[in-house]
Design a protein that fits this description.
By secondary structure, the chain is an alpha+beta fold. The chain is built from two helices and two strands, in the order E-E-H-H.
């Protein structure tokens, strides 16, 4: 992925001034890097245990409208 990243679209800065990659960025990247990114769209598949299990606990479960 060799492109110029755009603030507010591909990433933003959090309250601690860390760079946070967006969901759009991760989708375009195409895979989980294994670092436990906040907006990982791949269910942290490459994050080693036990960190992966902890991260998965914090994924919101969509509510059904049945």
């Amino acid at each position: 992925m060799n492109k110029t990243l755009i603030e507010g679209i591909d990433f933003y800065y959090d309250e601690n001034n860390y760079v946070v990659f967006t969901e759009k960025y991760h989708i375009e990247k195409g895979y989980c890097c294994g670092l436990g990114c906040k907006h990982c769209t791949y269910k942290y598949e490459n994050v080693p245990e036990p960190k992966r299990s902890e991260l998965l606990k914090n994924i919101p479960i969509p509510s059904s409208n049945n």
